[in-house]
Amino acid sequence: MSAFAGVVALGGGSPPQGVDARFSNSLDGKGLGALTLRRVGVGIFAFRQRILAPEDRHERQPAVGADGVVVSMFDGRLDNRGELLSTLGLTSPVSRPVPDGDIARAAYERWGEDAVPRLLGDFAWAVWNQRDKRLMLARDSARNRSLLFSRGDGFVAFSTDYRPLLALPEIPRDLDEVAIADILLTTPDESGRSLYKAISWVGPAERIIVTPDAVTRNRFWEPGPRPTLRLARDADYVDAARDVFDQAVACRLRIAGPVVAMVSGGLDSSAVATTAAQQRAPATVHGLCAVPMDGVPVPVMPHEYASERPFVATLAARHPNLQLEYLSSRATRPAELDPRGQFLATGVAVRSPSNVAWFVPVYERAAELGATTLLQGDFGNYTFSADGFARLDALRRDRAWTALAHEILALRHTMTPSVWRGLARGQVSQALPSWLPVRRRRWAASFPPTLLNPDFLRSAGLEGRFEREGALRQTLISSDTIASVLRYVLFRSRMQTDGVVVQRTMNGVTPSDPFSDRRVFEFCLSLPDEQFLSKGIWRRLSRRAFADRLSPEIISNYRRGAQNTDWHARLNPNRDVLEAQVERLERSPLATRILNVPLIRELSRQWPADPETLAGNSAPFRVQLLRVLHVGQFLDWTEGGNR
Questions:
Q1: Is the pTM of this model over 0.90?
Q2: Which has the closest alpha carbon to 175: 469, 490, 594, 494?
């Protein structure tokens, strides 16, 4: 993932003083090439290339059009290169192929702002049109690229990272306290707010136009319902699914350096890794798997399994060129203990610092192998591996009571008893008349509002917001359509994108997910519900589509792998550090105003010495305490001037 930044004087004057030096010092990150700085008209544009694809070696950005009017900066990968090259009349010889940035600029010069939906791939894109005095900022429909902007007095600044914007004294560093609260309690809304009041976020599938008079936001793609795909045979859906998925993986193998994939015992990341191994055979594909430290007790829930290792090991026999490595955390230097280096490098806090720490060894090993891209399968649960429980809601709404009863009873054989009972109770309660008392359900927050100072919660008027947002999230988690779930996880994904920025900046590795390909989205949005759930088989599409590349042990497994299971072993030897962090928060006026510091102190006192006592009840410590401490450290760092 490359990095760029720019500032434009919208009123026709000059950009703020000292921008050149400030961009030079702040546009940074592991694996980035030399800085290229250009002044064009009323704008200053800075770019640092990271080589992800072979064609990137020929990039010369910022790219200026032949007439000197258009300045384009593009960070990304185009998956429909061939189509675009042909349509635009560009030739791309093997000796000097046309880089993706040049294709994007040519697309803008042909179609203007309508070029954005024609681009398929992962990208963040900025174009300044000096003649029309219009700045276009756009992102693809996934969440693996970041783009931010700030409109000030007579200027607009933009960047793929927070740091270049925070480096400009004209941009205030005041925090958006609602966005801070979102980290602890729910997810961001679709407004584009970031952690800083003066900085806005360009969301997935969003195109923003900034002119001297206005800022206009619009989405060029929506994950709404599509016409239902009707094929002659059930097996035809499997063939179609394999075709679209194989194409998505192939696009992401156009990379410079080794192919490295995160792999687990689940259906999704293992499908990505094995598909890459099939397509690259006999060349080596590295599969990196996060596992608990040896000898650490791992208490898990009945619907979970403790380690990915036994399932991942079954892939080696089928794919000899898949070179597997098992990586565990280090108790000597837990990554979540001191995040100030992260704050300084990126300017952001993350939602799940302990889970981020769990995957740090994977990203670090990928970087050691020389990889700049890490294949993964995060969006599998929202696409191919959607559970299909929305079909139960559809049967209930259609009053197909017999079919609904048969489906619920069949699920009893593929679910743990407690999970099945919860699902069955939910369907029964939803089928009852709305006026019955049993239908009156109130959302119980997983992360209670007491994490925030009650006075702050009331004065900021946040109780109603979190009640509404929590209820929506709970509904989506329990059962809803692929379209509505995708809309939620995409358009509210700023915190996940911030996490990508952290890993990219600290380790120089960019995640890439075939399941987030727009063509995969479109395909899954068109499928009948029974492709995901039928006769008690949930996640049905991926179990059938990937049966040709995954082991029977993985295909038939209905339990979920437990993540970050050794967090207690990592942190317990460092209790003194945690205590010192709590004491520091107690001296921070900003932290004590926003956070419920007495509760933090009480949770730290209750820290269990024996991990066995945490079975099924680790959230107060692994999630709540560590998350609120991380946010508190971010507030304390901000209070100190973001230094």
A1: yes
A2: 594
Peptide bond preceding 620 in cis form (omega within 30 of 0): no
What is the spatial distance between Cα 565 and Cα 197, in angstroms, rounded to a whole number? Answer: 36
In our burial notation (b when 16+ CB lie closer than 10 A, e otherwise), range 388-425 reads: bbbbbbbbbeeeeeeebeebbeebeeebeeebbeebbe
Closest listed residue to residue 378, CA positions, set 221, 506, 246, 266: 266
Sheet order of strands, 285-290 included = 322-327, 285-290, 259-262, 373-375, 510-512
DSSP 543-577: HHHTTTTS-HHHHT--SEEPPSTTHHHHHGGGHHH
CB hemisphere CA count around 47 (13 angstroms): 24
Q: Please list the rounded mean pLDDT of every run of 10 residues in the chain (643 residues).
A: 92 82 90 93 94 93 88 96 96 91 96 97 96 95 94 94 94 92 82 94 97 95 93 97 98 96 96 98 97 82 86 94 91 70 90 87 95 95 93 90 94 91 82 58 50 88 76 63 90 89 90 96 96 95 97 94 84 86 90 91 84 66 83 88 51
Backbone torsion region of residue 78, taken as left when φ is above 0, otherwise alpha when ψ lies between -120 and 50, otherwise beta: beta
Give the Cα separation of 233 and 240 in Å (integer). 11
